[in-house]
Amino acid sequence: MTQEKKQTAVEWLINELVKKGFPIEKHGIDLYQQALAMEKEQMRSCFWEIDIQTFEQYYKEMYGKE
Fold this sequence. Notes:
By secondary structure, the protein is mainly α. The chain is 67% helix and 0% strand.
């Protein structure tokens, strides 16, 4: 059974902006990657009671990314 991958809030926002015609150029891509990294770090801090490996496995399974 394959679990459906979810979107992070940052991914949802970028997709909505692109749908509305906002161009995502080189700087936009860089900012997008930076925002994803920040969002991931915020999620990681919510998992402070479990080890990092467990979080990394959860994030990869849930969002399909490293």
